[in-house]
């Protein structure tokens, strides 16, 4: 599975920084208060029904229509970034982790590329004292870059600087276009332990059946599993 990846995008970071600095709306504190210490807040630019007070990202479903909030009209440079994504875009938020604040180690269930949804981070304001970890590995995100983070893995952030850290966070649905983008991206990957465990259970059941067909199938799965581990 992909842990994180750097996505090649053309981003006018100076224009976006100017837009964000001019936004006058009140930031809303993140609702998952157990997951952070200090101040972690959000502005919603796209949400179900286009409601500006909805800062909770939700998975795309038949009953949810994601629309731009009124704040998005003040952000033409961000609109340009969104328009460049040739995939369904769900929620779009600005997330502000203030100086001295931390996001505690946590994970967001099922929010991963392999499960059909990709969360993209574009650092708007950051610096070298902001530390973003995917599990125990530091993700070297810089202003104006675009990164995919597997939120289904444990991740955490420390803002050890004297300034706020603000990211543009975009939730997308995976399609063929996005798969092609990820194929060409710089990425960090890890073995999917859950799939290995499931495969081992299947192999065990096939061996219990003890027929020529199931034993051949089990042998094929074992061979493929060994090859994946070696690679």
Walk me through the structure.
With 231 residues, the protein is of the alpha+beta class. 27% of the residues lie in helices and 32% in strands. It is built from five helices and 14 strands. Strands 1, 2, 4, 5, 6, 8, 11, 13 and 14 form a nine-stranded antiparallel beta sheet that branches. Strands 3-7-12-9-10 form a five-stranded antiparallel beta sheet, with no helix packed on it. Helix 4 (193-209) packs antiparallel against helix 5 (212-230). The chain is elongated and about 70 Å long. 26% of the residues are buried.
Write the layout of secondary structure elements.
Blueprint: E1 2-7, H1 13-22, E2 28-29, E3 36-37, E4 40-48, E5 66-68, H2 76-83, E6 89-97, E7 102-106, E8 117-125, E9 130-134, E10 137-138, E11 146-149, E12 155-159, E13 165-173, H3 176-183, E14 186-189, H4 193-209, H5 212-230
Antiparallel strand pairs: 1-11, 1-14, 2-4, 3-7, 4-5, 4-6, 6-13, 7-12, 8-11, 8-13, 9-10, 9-12
Helix pairs in contact: 4-5
Quick recap:
The protein has helices spanning 13-22, 76-83, 176-183, 193-209, 212-230; strands at 2-7, 28-29, 36-37, 40-48, 66-68, 89-97, 102-106, 117-125, 130-134, 137-138, 146-149, 155-159, 165-173, 186-189. The chain has 231 residues and is an alpha+beta fold. The longest helix has 19 residues, at 212-230.
């Amino acid at each position: 599975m992909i842990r994180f990846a750097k996505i090649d995008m053309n981003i006018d970071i100076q224009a976006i920084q100017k837009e964000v600095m001019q936004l006058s709306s009140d930031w809303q504190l993140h609702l998952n208060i157990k997951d952070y210490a200090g101040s972690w807040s959000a502005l919603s630019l796209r949400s179900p029904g286009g409601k500006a007070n909805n800062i909770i990202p939700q998975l795309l479903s038949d009953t949810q229509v994601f629309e731009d909030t009124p704040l998005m009209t003040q952000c033409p440079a961000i609109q340009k970034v969104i328009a460049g994504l040739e995939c369904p875009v769900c929620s779009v938020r600005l997330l502000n982790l203030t100086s001295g604040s931390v996001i505690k180690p946590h994970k967001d269930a099922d929010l991963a590329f392999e499960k059909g949804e990709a969360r993209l981070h574009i650092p708007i304001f950051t610096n070298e004292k902001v530390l973003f970890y995917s599990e125990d590995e530091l993700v070297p995100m810089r202003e104006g870059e675009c990164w995919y983070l597997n939120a289904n893995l444990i991740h955490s952030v420390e803002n050890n600087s004297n300034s706020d850290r603000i990211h543009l966070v975009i939730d997308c649905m995976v399609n063929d276009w996005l798969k092609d983008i990820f194929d060409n991206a710089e990425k960090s990957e890890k073995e999917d332990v859950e799939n290995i465990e499931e495969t081992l259970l299947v192999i065990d059941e096939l061996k219990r059946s003890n027929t020529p067909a199931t034993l051949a199938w089990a042998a094929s799965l074992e061979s493929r599993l060994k090859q994946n581990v070696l690679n």
